Amino acid sequence: MEEQEREISYADPPASDSEVVVVVNPSRVRPPLGVVLATVLYCAELLNAAVLCSSYHRTDDEHWLGFTITFMLLPAVLIQMTLIFIHRDVGRDRPLVLLLHLLLLGPIIRCFDALMVYFQAGRKEEPYVTITRKIYLKRGQGTRTECEVSRSERILATHRNAFKRTTVIQAFLGSTPQLTLQLYATIQEKYILPIRLTLMIITKISIIYGALVCSVLAIQIRYDDYKVRFRPSAYLCMILWRGLEITTRITALVLMSTALTHWVILVGMANLIFFFFLPWAEFWAKKGSLAKDVEKNFSKLGTVVVLCLFTLLYACINVFCWSAVQLDLSHGELIDRKQRWDRLAIYYSARFVENLLLITLWYFFKSDFYDLFRQNVHDCLRRICCCRGTGQDQRHTRKMAPSYSTAATMVLMPDEPQEPLDPQNLNSDTDQQETAILDDITQYA
């Protein structure tokens, strides 16, 4: 039975209970395009960052080298831990997979595994292993539907969920600080390396894709009981909003760093610490207990470590953009599904004031980069005006008709003894010629 689906929004009324429809023939297995894209972005950023590190090492740029390596390895290590945690490979006998994860090549082997499962799916009939229940909306009426999920679909769903998490980690723990660092390095060194420009382009794509995945995940978590589909216009709106929001934030931080470097580090750390301890403060205020459904095989210390890493990701997201979800460490899902509009308004109001304050401080304490940029633009415009003025004079001279009064005339004169040149007169003539040239340039400018 085919249902015509539509998107849902926050204003949609809750679906009413209706009869259950069992879908005997589920839809065709979708290709894991998100897994492939996440793997390509991970490999491209890792390779470009490694090449840029070698360039910094050759030029003895120790500061740029250290920060670039940090923002390259930190998300890579966390991505390996996330993939191992989601796929539960710790207690399984898979030494090759664990070895590739130690070599930071885990996403590659996971991507090949997902592609192999996709291409082998449908060749032989598979018994379903689970049933999913979702609510399909049609003309405002909700229909509860049960769909049989085969083994291949379940494996691909696990891969998709894992790579959605790794994409967010890569975007906000690696790509965003990496882009901020490389923009700051470009302004300080006043020239653009080709490999650095390539890395900045890749990180920008990774940030936009990660922010898009973060927004989609937030909606899917809040409406877990619904089958949510998005139109292309919805994706475009989310890309534009998230892209402009993160770009504005990075621009404010980079401009501030060119004027007050140490103070911008203080601002970034203050934001990170505040958003990191905010969920824990709410957890202690509620006097709740830690969620026990994080992982059954984990001890209490292991659960705390996982929750700290999860809170770190939440804090890094909120440093650059709105996370769209609220953490609840006492809840089993760790997510508060209620939309807190008051927090949304407070966040964007405070972020607007902070960005405005950072740009104002940069304007009053700006470095010589802005003066150098303005001087270069002024020199460029002056040369353009001079070239235009010289070209107009040449065209005007060519258009003038030749006449006897202005034509050159050869006259034979008797030879006279030449007097030696006076050096002082020669210098004065040269100065007068230079003064006349400068006056002409000023007049045309």
TrEMBL record:
Keywords for the protein's UniProt record, in alphabetical order: Membrane, Transmembrane, Transmembrane helix
Predominant place of localization: membrane
Transmembrane spans: 35-57, 63-86, 98-119, 199-221, 260-280, 301-325, 345-365
GO cellular component: a single term: plasma membrane
Subcellular location: Membrane
Pfam families, per the entry: XK-related
Membrane-topology descriptor: Multi-pass membrane protein
Superkingdom as given in the UniProt entry: Eukaryota
Family membership: Belongs to the XK family.
Protein name as catalogued: XK-related protein
Protein's organism: Hippocampus comes
